[in-house]
Amino acid sequence: MRDEVPEIKELIIKVCELKLFKPELWLKVVSKITSKAVPSENEEEIVFYNDQIKTFSLLCLKNVIESYDEPYHIDPKVPLPEHVEENDRLCHLLTKFINVAKDSVTNGLSQQQEIGIKLLITIIKKWDDVNDLQTPTESILTQHVIHFGSAIRTGFSKDAPPYLMKVSASLLSIYVSSRMVSKDEAAIKRVLAFITDKLPNLKEMHFSQYGEIAATLVKLYLLHCLADITIKADHSKNLQLLTLLEPYAKICIDYWTSVLKDYAYLSLKLDPSNQYIYLPEEGDDEDIVKYKGEYFDQGTQVEVFEYYEATYPIILNALTRVGRVKSRIHNPVLLAGLSIRTFDKIRSSCGVDVSVSFATLKDETRDQLYNCLEAMTKLIGQSEFYELKYAPW
């Protein structure tokens, strides 16, 4: 199964989603593929167990886990339907799922490490809120906490490629806000340090092997990670986590403001006459006004814009929670305008009335809309909003 036959891969993914085979069977197949260290001399086996297939098999397992949402598959205390056996529960295989993910992060190549970390993210989302059978006050994942912390450490190792650091930041943001480490402040501080230690020199961070675009990717997603943690901590009134974040609030506000400044210049255009941002009209010069990006280099604007679009809503939401932006460019009117523009753009691209079909949207799109709307509410509620000139959105 090579890249020349993507239809076969699509078919297998569809089979995963349709739940045509028991999860235990998928687990056995994936475990066999990913654990085979040295293929035999048979050429067919060499092809079957190459690194590309190992990566794809992990992706299949991730899709299998995501496909099962029935309560009895998630929580071992939920009674089973008559037609389901105990061994068929997804939660019955939880430890083995974690071991497969852990082994792929520890022993696999970077592509397998990436899917392994994504697999751990899926596991946290699905099981962190489930109580442990022996210790009901703790998460069922608490006994596995060391494997999640180890995976994060691998993603932030010195030689980790940028895309692995990005997905590790996503795991970190979910991990420190999870029940499994809620009583382990030392574990939270340990993984937070992977990002907070980089903050003083973040703007100077470079990846000579991967180039300027990769550097922008990492910088934005590290700041996105801190913003996501801040939102979760503030929303849940997690005083422990808020206290750990407090020493970095000022530098985060400065960095997040810089991200929004970059985003404004990349997506809109500066009007030199009144220092407000406006949408360029048809026929206008599309060149960006002379502006030195805080996190991007000239010539990379097109390539990095998608990173700004993906990270901007969360960063904006976090900024409205921890500080006010009062500079003449980045005022509540401008930020609310950017938020409204993003909201409208997503709504138009979906081709639906978002107010009616909100629940049917993809999780990522729904999260972006939610963060834009929540930020708008906070910004428009500020007194500064009413004192400033209306920005034409």
Descriptive labels:
393 residues, 18 helices, 61% helix, 2% strand, disordered C terminus
Outline type: globular
- In total, the number of strands is 2
Output the radius of gyration.
23 Å
The spatial strand order of the largest sheet comes to 1-2
Order of helices and strands: HHHHHHHHHHHHHEEHHHHH
Gap from first CA to last CA: 50 Å
Strand content: under 5%
Classify the helix fraction into a percent range.
55-70%
Q: Low-confidence parts lasting 5 or more residues at pLDDT below 50?
A: 270-289, 324-331, 352-358, 388-393
Report the oligomer: single chain
State mean pLDDT (0 to 100 scale).
79
Q: Main sheet?
A: 2 strands, antiparallel
Structural class: mainly alpha
Q: Helical element count?
A: 18
